Write the structure tokens for this entry.
Amino acid sequence: MKFLFLFASSVALAAPTFNKDIAPILYENCATCHRPGEVAPFSLLTYQDAAKRSGLIATVTKKRYMPPWKPEQGYGNFDHVRRLTDDQIAKIQEWAATGAPEGDAAEKPAVPTFPSGWQAGEPDQVLKFSEPYKLAADGRDQFRCFVLPMNLAKESYVSGAEFRPGNPKVVHHALIFLDSTGTARKLAAASGGSGYPCFGGPGFTGAGLLVGWAPGYTPLPAEPSLSQAVRPGTDVVIQIHYHPSGKPEQDQSSIGLKFSGPPTKGRALLLVVNRYLDIPAGESHYVVKASVTVPQDAELWGITPHAHYLATDMKVNARFPDGTVTPLIWIKDWDFNWQGQYRYKEPIKLPKGTKIELEYVYDNSSGNPHNPSNPPVRVRFGEQTKDEMALAFLGLVLPSPEDVQPFQRAVVLQYVEDFVRLTDNLNDLPEEIPPSMIPRLRMALALFDQDHDGKLNAGERATLLKFIQTMMPQ
Ligand code: HEC
């Protein structure tokens, strides 16, 4: 009898309730997005809000669809991981299956509060859209670039940047670039205002990625040792992915910048990219590879993988000079809507000669529900929604600011080398080259075709690369 009693009471103790077991999980892992005014379609702060959706909550957490967190566990040790434990998922399952009980009010944790101001400290300069951007109630997602002049009087050093969505209900993610070329301004003027439509990036090459943002993102504190030099005339370009909310909305987002003195360490963004992808219509498993060798010792602090709608599986590894391989990230079910910037808990040391290897898989069949083309079409590299991309940005720290230029130079030379390898047959140049450039390029390449066989062999390619190297600015 006593035994039975003990048994019954332990079951009663174990049965999860909202107040004791579930609210702490939801407040910690869901409330950043599921609270009034934020990106998620409903709040999960009260018992009523959660209980009426207990079945759905159990389903989406079991599938790990929520909270949105794409990297596979064990492939990169990231900071700010948004992932429920197996135990938490089991508790939610049990709670939903036992009728979602509320439990004892005394056990309910305090509803979390969220900082409303700048999270990484008061900025030195705030740039805001000159006027609110109007978004229709429904329709397709919109991708728009806003150009915000910094109006710098002299060369300055940016040590921190924090994006703040004006209307978090509709801002799905944002990428912030620095443009010192004036191109974004021209694109905006041509489209009649302070912004222009853009999809994958700012719509041109030459702008550097400053920072990214997605719901739940924790901004980095300012880092004067890694400040970035910015010339007068530079603009901040904010690319925003808007998701209509069902009501007409307005957004006036802003960016806060911190300034400091010149950096004491080097900061480099290593781009691993394959621009030559060519995915046949209907192909359900198209593999794209790319690699870059790290030209000198560096520390890796973060990674931003990027592709559009057809990518399914994305892997980036580091192959060290001793042959060992360390996974940097693996995303098994890429979702364009939940792309992120991932930061490592501890920076990863990449000795000179480490090869960064990217391998992405694309599904261009009609069986891919994200395929923007129906029926599928041939897809190549580009910035439009129907184009694809295969790239990853690696955030690196180099021992000193003087290391940055030689580092970037060595990397650019590798890109050129890849390109030259592809252009070895002068009569069959890659289709990515604009047709207007082909006659001149063929003439230039022919200068190095010493045996006049219409192809560049290994020796001829080496001569060409040496020539390019001497032409590059020191
Ligand atoms: C980073 C922001 C974010 C976090 C964190 C987050 N959600 Fe969501 N959630 C969303 C957004 C946005 C949607 C609507 C779009 C979608 O379904 O992808 C959504 C949708 C949902 C849905 C509806 C799914 C459907 O099919 O209708 C449920 C249920 C849900 N979330 C539960 C949770 C739970 C439970 C957690 C925490 C364990 C959580 N979410 C954490 C952003 C978030």
Remarks:
- Residues 423-471 form one domain.
